[in-house]
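Project channel, design review

CF: Before we commit to the Actinoallomurus spadix constructs, I'd like one complete example in the thread so the newer folks can see what an input/output pair looks like. Taking ORC1/DEAH AAA+ ATPase domain-containing protein.
RD: sounds good, go ahead.
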Amino acid sequence: MVRAPQAGPPGARIISTPQLQLARHVVTDVTSHEAVGVIHGHAGLGKTFAVRTCAQALAAGTGRLEAPQVCTVSFSPQPTLRQVVDALLLTLTGSHGSSKSRFHLTRELIAELARIPRLIVVDEAQRLTGHGIELLRHLHDDPDTRLGLLYVGGHGCWEVLAREPMLASRIWRRLAITPLDRDIVPEAIRGYHPMYEDADDELLHYIDDRFAHGIWRNWASFSSTAHLLAQRAGRTAIDEEIITNAFALHGGGPNRAR
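CF: and here is what came back for ORC1/DEAH AAA+ ATPase domain-containing protein:
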């Protein structure tokens, strides 16, 4: 299987940064209390990866909770209510339901959501309309349903959700994901991949300051390129030549790729 550059190079490890640890608390709390939460931040910061990693641990029963069913759904921009219901039914059951009526389908959806405990992860939540947000709130508040509801989104996500007072007042956990703090970049990146293990702080800060800017997607993309260059040169560690050539292959300058 071809590995996407944004996934990082082979051998990349999951780093338990402070924000990943906080995301684990959010996912666990929203699931165990069948509550509402939101994780938001700009693109490339690792929101979806963090939620997926934490949710997979729950679904595998590696935490203290009974394993819930974790369902991730993503809607088209500005979805209609029918599209929201259809997408949820398809995600949960594998079919679009047995009726052409949205109201009948909504009842089917409520019955399905009442069947077993679930964590519903709404990815790219900034795409939702106010009506879609209100429908999800209604599904969550129904006394028969058994679900935690976690919104995950990029730029504008919190602003979209916060405009709906009935939802905002119900959000129990809110985590804003930010770029990796510069002070912990060297330690985090040395643990991220073996080729960085012997790199000094100055070298790793140089890559971060000029290219990655604390953004995990940038680090993953750069690392995929650097790993290929190192392999072709028969090397196992990062050095200045590899860094220079990697910068050149990313448009000649990290700041342009920002």
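RD: helpful, thanks. The beta strands are 36-40, 69-74, 118-123, 147-153, 171-176.
CF: Residues 216-232 form the longest helix (17 residues).
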